[in-house]
Fold this protein.
Amino acid sequence: MEDEPAERGRMLRNWLMSVTTEKKGKLFYGWWIVIACAIQNIFAGGTFFYGFTAFFNPIREQFGWTSAQTALAFSLQRLEGGIAAPLVGYLFDRLGPRKLILFGMIVAGGGLIYMSRIQSLGAFYGAFIVIAVGTSFGLAAVSMATIANWFIRKRGRALSFLMAGFGLSGTVVPLLVLLIAQFDWRTSLVIVGIGFWVIGIPVAMVTRHKPEQYGYLPDGDTVVTSDNEASAVIESSSTGPASSEINFGIREAMRTRAFWLIALTYMMAQFATSSVMILEMPHLENVGISRQLAGLVMTFMTLLSLVGRLGSGFLGDKIDKRYVIAGALALQCIGMIVFANIQQPWHLIPFLILYGPGYGGTIPIRPALTADYFGRTNFGTIQGLMMGIAVLGGVVSPVVAGQFFDITGTYREIFLIYAALIVVAIPAILAAKRPFLKSQP
């Protein structure tokens, strides 16, 4: 019987023999998934996540609802998303992304079409909950988990390209404003709902769960000849690219300090991002900025967020991701202070320059940090649990801001309070050091 060093040497030789570099000119399939999901993000971001601010005042004014009543729908959407996030993560780890995205896009499209027929506040809330179910199952959380499975060494940049889709989605917002002006908000919702089906269903067909199931290893650096070989390489080689991963169980992850500090960071940041995303146009219109210019602000904000989205991904693959997130949060905080005090159109320039890259910089690097810390095996569930905690900020933020506006006639002071909460998030993320399994050397 061979001794252990000889056996390890034999396994290493077998790994080197069974793995070959990917053919030049052939794009790793994981990048096709990135491209497909990024296209989906462009449409969904421009029409719903960022674009729905264009629907806010037309719907509120037609029915005579208060700002708080209207904003509550967004809070319900985020509340449902937070409740569903752990379930979506659990199902992702066991079913993979295709079924979830297919279900989610069908439901979200139907919810948008249903919203076009509403006649009451209760129906408005109900439609938002239906859309929330669809987007929870079919959009960002699932696509991020998918990309985290397909990439390890290049995870930060892959997630950056994925989330760049949301950055480009700002270009859709002015088109949505024109669409509402040309037709009305009801017809526009029908068009958007059908668009969710036309784009989302093909994206579901493109996605795959894990590269090992299709004869690949993560990152596309290597290709193995069969599924069996892929499994053998990962199990036997102590030096292969996937063997150094540490995979936490769900309970093990939740016992770590890092889990709760990252979740707290998400939650504090959500107070600012959720309120800006929903109330950007109402706030700017309230201080005298024209509706057309306010629509362009969302476009430029998301485009400038590309600087942060792409830059943070590349930086995060080279330096400590915590420092990247902290720097992005600092920019976002200063930008939020400027946003609260906007009075003249030129004030929009420093806001966009600061807030856009800061906001975008946190988005791809947070799931990358989570995957680095806790591994791929239970990533969907762990990320879902974190999102379920973080969503509390997104639920409370727009309702409190809307209620504040109904009482005072301004959003300024509440936005300053939300900026202060971002300050709390910075030391939280810096304190979130890499956790270690008990069995880990």
